[in-house]
């Protein structure tokens, strides 16, 4: 009987050693690719010579961020991420429908500081041998740093700060996976509830030609990032 009990205790000891829970605190950095656009640009006819317009769906950009995350339970945690994002050339662009080559494409670039508070879910738990599957939902709070406009091959010009909203609020949702070595892959989407440009701004009305106050200019994007959890280096 004693031998059976010792064998059972030994089995649980080995299982506990091979399925050790990951430390609840993690912190690290991410860099990634962003593709974005702004709704309502199909009505920005003035920017392309009062022709029927359409927004381009491919506007590649970048994001770099630092994050901290804490698991309160094995399946639930919270995280805060702060980053800087912008377009390589534009975060959104519009062209005339008959401009097949896009020679006179009107580009809008926007650089922002992003703050992402989020609730984290770990549906498979947090065991180091398996890696960690992460789901997250939260807010996308942004502060514009600078904005530029560019028509075709012309030089880019700055958009005055009083033309765009000083603060943006949106929502994010995404999925990520952290490997046992600390490498993390992250995929998320974001949609802003607030307009990029002020409702009565001269740029929105007279440059883009979006004059109806009901027409919104909300930014939305998808983001794929690669990161590393530096807390892994501190684990024994």
Blueprint (SSEs and pairs):
Blueprint: H1 2-18, E1 25-38, E2 53-55, E3 60-71, E4 76-87, E5 92-96, E6 106-121, E7 132-151, E8 157-158, E9 168-178, E10 183-195, H2 202-208, E11 218-229
Antiparallel strand pairs: 1-3, 1-11, 2-5, 3-4, 4-6, 5-6, 6-7, 7-8, 7-9, 9-10, 10-11
What does this structure look like?
This protein is mostly beta strands. The chain has a single domain (24-234), classed as Porin (Beta Barrel), CATH 2.40.160. The protein is 10% helix and 51% strand. It has helices at 2-18, 202-208; strands at residues 25-38, 53-55, 60-71, 76-87, 92-96, 106-121, 132-151, 157-158, 168-178, 183-195, 218-229. The chain has an eight-stranded antiparallel β-barrel with strand order 1-3-4-6-7-9-10-11. Strand 9 (168-178) and strand 10 (183-195) form a beta hairpin. The longest helix is centred in the first third of the chain and has 17 residues, at 2-18. The protein is elongated and about 60 Å long.
Notable features of this structure?
Porin, mainly beta, single chain, 10% helix, 236 residues
- For this structure, the CATH topology is Porin
The SSE order reads HEEEEEEEEEEHE
Shape: elongated
Number of structurally distinct domains: 1
Low-confidence stretches: 4-20
Report the biggest beta sheet as strand number plus sense, adding barrel if it closes. 8 strands, antiparallel, barrel
């Amino acid at each position: 009987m004693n031998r059976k009990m010792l064998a059972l205790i030994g089995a649980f000891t080995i299982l506990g050693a091979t399925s050790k829970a990951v430390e609840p605190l993690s912190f690290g950095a991410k860099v990634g690719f962003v593709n974005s656009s702004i709704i309502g640009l199909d009505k920005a006819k003035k920017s392309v010579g009062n022709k029927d317009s359409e927004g381009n769906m491919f506007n590649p950009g970048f994001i770099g961020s630092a994050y901290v995350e804490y698991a309160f339970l094995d399946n639930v945690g919270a995280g805060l991420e702060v980053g800087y994002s912008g377009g390589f050339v534009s975060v959104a662009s519009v062209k005339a429908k008959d401009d097949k080559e896009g020679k006179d494409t009107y580009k809008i670039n926007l650089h922002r500081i992003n703050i992402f508070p989020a609730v984290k879910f770990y549906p498979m738990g947090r065991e180091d041998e398996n890696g960690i599957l992460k789901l997250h939902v939260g807010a996308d709070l942004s502060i514009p740093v600078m904005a530029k406009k560019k028509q075709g091959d012309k030089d880019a010009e700055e958009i005055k700060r009083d033309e765009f909203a000083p603060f943006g609020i949106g929502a994010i949702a995404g999925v990520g996976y952290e490997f046992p070595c600390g490498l993390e892959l992250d995929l998320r989407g974001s949609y802003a509830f607030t307009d990029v440009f002020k409702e009565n701004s001269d740029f929105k009305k007279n440059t883009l030609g979006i004059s109806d106050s009901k027409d919104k200019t909300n930014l939305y994007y998808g983001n794929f990032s690669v990161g590393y959890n530096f807390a892994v280096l501190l684990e024994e």
